[in-house]
Amino acid sequence: MGAASSEARADRADDVLALARLAAAPESVRAILAWLTRRTGGLATLIGPTGTALATPEPDPDPAPGPDTGPDTLVTAVSAAASAAVELRRRGAPSAVLGGEGGRAVHLVRLGHGDAAGGDEPPYLAVVGPDDPRCGVLLADAARTLALCWRLEEAERARRRVESAEAHSREAALHLLMVGSVPAAQRIAGALGPALPALARVYVIECPVRRRREIAARIDRVARGRAWIVPCPVRSNHLIALVPPGRNGEGAGEGEEERERVDGLARLIVQRVPECRIGTSAEHPLRDTAAGYEQAIHALAVARGAPLRYAGFGRHTDTTALVSPEGRLWARELLGPCLRYVPPRRADPGPQELLGTLGSWLSFGGAANRHLKIHRNTLAARIRLIGDLLGLDIGRSLAGQSTAWLALRLHSAPPGTAETPAEPPTEPPAAPATPTAPAPAPASLDALLSSPAAELWARAQFGPLDEAGPSAVPETVRAWLRADARLPAAATALGISLPGARKRLARAEEVLGRSLLRAPSAKYELWLALRASGSL
Questions:
Q1: Average pLDDT over residues 331-346
Q2: Pairing between β-strand 199-206 and β-strand 238-243 as defined by DSSP bridges
Q3: What pLDDT is stored for residue 416 in this prediction?
Q4: Which end of the chain is more exposed for a tag (fewer CB within 10 A), N or C?
Q5: Which of 101, 93, 96, 154 is nearest to 126 (CA)?
């Protein structure tokens, strides 16, 4: 009798040690259930108080053949465990053995006496049809360990849900900033914290996905909790940060001290994570976050080939020179069918959503579906609809894409950017003797690009390439633009290899300080500049 008792204690000690080892394993709940299934000979499962199967054992890698290994038997056993758990809850008992008449007995133990996690009732450990009907001590020991593991896994799932909700909320705030909805973005930021800065530099950090959390924590510490950090919704290896300028959040301009602070943050990141590449924009108000993001992307293209692995945007060659009353009228007329579009169904996208889709498509191409959180087939259907409305091939033609891109820029330009017409005279003019002449027709794209300001702008676009030499690089850029930004077609037209053409475009990115091969790309501006110079 004493020998048997000693052997039982030794077996129990071995079981407790096995449970402790399994508790430290990944997916410990499933691992413990699988161990219990092998140890007892019956199916071990975790059942919620309402009869929902919360966890089942991992599939045995080498199950022994037998009558109880089929999927029908598994479903039947889980159903029996669920019914028994509901009955035990109705009785209010912490443990019991139910069934056994015409079927297999179900051994149940409640995991804890209070709320398990998140205010919910604790689940039940159920073992259906064990070989040893006197396994109560084993199940009691397993229930204590399993309860702790279940609470830890529930807490981890809750943490991930909160983290995912916060990431999506931050992403929504960034999206609102990109489309100019600053008040709505500020409301979201005010709820999440920190508040959005009035002025900010945009950092785009290209890094391994596994290091994004570490880099975000580093930026947050350096910025003293005032940076707004968002994982890029389009590229999983990008991290976007809006960092306020100055030590106290006050604008510090572009002086040496501020430049050193910006370089210091970028240098600190690349020192800790050598795989990183960082592009930074100039300071921008919140309403110009989209422009800051584009600048940071262009700077990132330079940083990929820079020895320091980071770069700032240094060339301000935007489309301000093309903004004029005539340009606004042309853009309004071109986008008019889209602005006046009435969707046939209430669930279909309206004018503003179509313009947002167009902007996302021109910025991210095929990745716009991830930016807009829509299916790629939905994106393709919208692009076809927008192209039909505008009368442009925005799917594959660089000419159509560049025209739509310029129209969007002119349409969304701040009112103060354009030249305003002269103020009307204070005295009413005399009544004309002849009928009033009709309003002038809107200018064409060629007329807009033929103005003196547009010609200066076009020369500024290609100036650095033409001055840097050799001529093969600007020739490759021009051939690439004529080929609708398709690299294989450009390489064929030049009679060079595809890697050679890609290398020349990478060199052009360094000279221009702009991104060409990765979106958002400067290809639309360069195509317009090429058309303005008459080189198409």
A1: 93
A2: antiparallel
A3: 54
A4: N
A5: 96
